[in-house]
Amino acid sequence: MIAFILRRIAYIIPVMLIASFGIFALLRLGGSDPIAQYLILSNLPSTPETIASLRKEFGLDKPLLAQYVLWLQKAVILDFGSSYMSGRPVAEDFFAFLPTTLLLVGLGVVVIIVVSVPLGIVSAHYRDKIPDFLVRFFCFVGVCMPNFWFAFLLVWAFAITLAWLPAVGADSLSSFILPTLSIALMSSCVNTRLIRANMLETSKERHITYATLRHLSQKTILLKHNFLTAILPIITAFGMHIGELIGGALVVESIFALPGIGLYCIQGIANHDYPVIQCFVVVMCLIFTISNLIIDIIYAYLDPRIYKLLQDAKQ
């Protein structure tokens, strides 16, 4: 198992190299010009001398590969350069905003579990009955509704109309309720449908039939024999949910004015601030990759057959 974990960790290195070089090249080949944006925001004249000086200052006068190598040497020690617009170290600002986003994503994961697990079990248990239809209708609406639109509805209902919860800021834990519900809705609905489908598929297997013939209680069959058997693909799906939550944080933090990396990155994108965008993408890729690594380890631990298959494939 230790060799399996070390091998999976080793895969992170080429993945991060490919992801970092991809975003590095796309930014510079995409046609955006941070120099022009800097001149506009700074009220500086757009003269050839000024542009040449700024390109040299920002390191944009070097070949693409040379720029990447210099950036990578610093990024390894978590030095992502300075923002073109503010001149502040990107890593300092980024890691100052990161806890807010991690808290938002963590609360989103909790909501997904609390909402999707009971709804999925109820929907599978009452298949084609009223509770099942209600759950499926809720999931249909939740999957079709964009998180930013749901965020606006929550603000209108609970912040403006009822005045129960704050609409902006991060002054207290209550400030995270509406943003958390906004980013967790779609993933909760997807996970509910996945749990329902897996449990219905598992209910056809032999061990469920044997448990029924042994006259075990419906609760025992449903939770111990059906749900626990169907949970492995659900655990795998959580790796994807982490990515969805991080992506949703970009928009949701802007709507609720949360001081997180999502809002920080949106400002960087608007200003064509390469160091900010690169830092965001690389760190988010790293978090997403580590999340999937943890999921793979949990999966192999819960189902030793997966680990055995990997070992046989290696041989």
Protein model, in words:
This protein is mainly α and 315 residues long. It contains 13 helices and no strands. It has helices at 2-29, 34-42, 48-58, 64-75, 90-125, 130-144, 147-161, 177-202, 206-213, 218-256, 261-270, 274-302, 304-314. The protein is globular. 28% of the residues are buried. The mean pLDDT is 80.
Secondary structure elements and their pairing?
Blueprint: H1 2-29, H2 34-42, H3 48-58, H4 64-75, H5 90-125, H6 130-144, H7 147-161, H8 177-202, H9 206-213, H10 218-256, H11 261-270, H12 274-302, H13 304-314
What are the main properties of this structure?
about 325 residues; mainly alpha
Structure, briefly:
By secondary structure, this protein is mostly helical. Helices cover 79% and strands 0% of the residues.
